[in-house]
Design goal:
Blueprint (H helix, E strand, L loop, with lengths): L7 E5 L4 H12 L3 E6 L2 H14 L7 E5 L5 H15 L4 E4 L5 E2 L7 H26 L5 E6 L12 H19 L8 E8 L2 E2 L2 H4 L1 E2 L9 H10 L3 E2 H13 L4 E4 L3 H10 L4 H4 L1
Parallel strand pairs: 1-2, 1-4, 2-3, 4-6, 5-9, 6-7, 7-11, 8-10
Length: about 270
């Protein structure tokens, strides 16, 4: 999808982080937007930022308070979007949450929550929108995974499981595009550490031998986040415009992808 101006894009998790940065970057290219988030106040702040930057623009923006983990809400969201925008050219399933804990300390309820949002939210988005997107001249779905969908790490069993699931689902869906529409594309994006609120909002359970406080652990995680949300959005949109199906996002993503292929068992020793 080389030309974005005049198209209609749906972005979930648009109230902060990469989702908000994507909204701003898309609006800058003249793309109409249907923005979703579970937090209506965060969505209003995104709208305020759009208004302050593009107050003379003809970009049509609609806001939708949606819990992506609930199928009924996603189905109603899609109905609402097509009623207001008439078509959708781009769906970016971006909403997600993080959690850090050893598997032995993770409750089943916490694991279900991670999967419901990070994986099922993507599935619901594709199911609700894809069948009606095929009528558009161009249609692209981008599912946001993570470099933790390429490699795994201790204390992230639930998060890695959800992001590997997004990767596998996206790959399978990509092989089925011939059944979805002649101008349909499916891509999966793999952000490395991005400076957003996801770490601050993540549930963190420290193990007995960690030797550090929760605050220290979060501070350590922040040091690994080398990419701004704005730069991540640029990488994602560049990948979309180039027609890529595997979009590596942010500093370190290319290295991690390479290590996952060359050292599929021993990459953690290198890292």
């Amino acid at each position: 999808m080389q030309v974005i101006k005049g198209k209609v894009a749906v972005v979930t998790g648009a109230g902060s982080g990469i989702g908000r940065a994507l909204a701003i970057a898309l609006a800058a290219q003249g793309c109409n937007l249907a923005l979703a988030d579970i937090n209506p106040e965060s969505l209003k702040e995104t709208q305020r930022l759009l208004d302050s930057n593009f107050f003379e623009s003809n970009v049509h923006v609609t806001l939708h308070t949606v819990d992506v983990s609930q199928w009924e809400q996603m189905e109603a969201f899609a109905d609402n979007v097509f009623e207001q925008h008439r078509q959708v050219n781009m769906l970016i399933n971006n909403a997600g949450v993080a959690m850090g804990a050893l598997f032995k300390d993770v409750s089943l309820d916490d694991m279900r929550r991670i999967m419901d949002i990070n994986f099922w939210g993507v599935v619901y988005g594709c199911k609700a929108f894809a069948s009606r997107m095929k009528t558009a001249d161009e249609a692209t779905i981008v599912n946001i995974s993570s470099v933790f969908g390429l490699i795994s790490a201790p204390m992230h069993s639930a998060y890695c499981a959800s992001k590997f699931a997004v990767r596998g689902f996206s790959d399978a869906l990509r092989h089925e595009v011939g059944y979805m529409g002649k101008n349909f594309k499916v891509a999966c994006a793999f952000p490395a550490g991005v400076k957003t609120s996801i770490a601050d909002n993540a549930k963190l359970t420290l193990h007995a031998k960690s030797g550090s406080s929760e605050q220290q652990q979060r501070a350590h995680m922040e040091k690994l986040f080398l990419t701004t949300a704005e730069d991540a959005a640029i990488d994602i949109l560049r990948g979309i415009q180039k027609g890529k199906t595997r979009i590596r996002v942010g500093k370190g993503s290319i290295l991690i992808d390479l290590l996952s292929r060359l050292l599929p068992v021993k990459y953690m020793a290198f890292l």
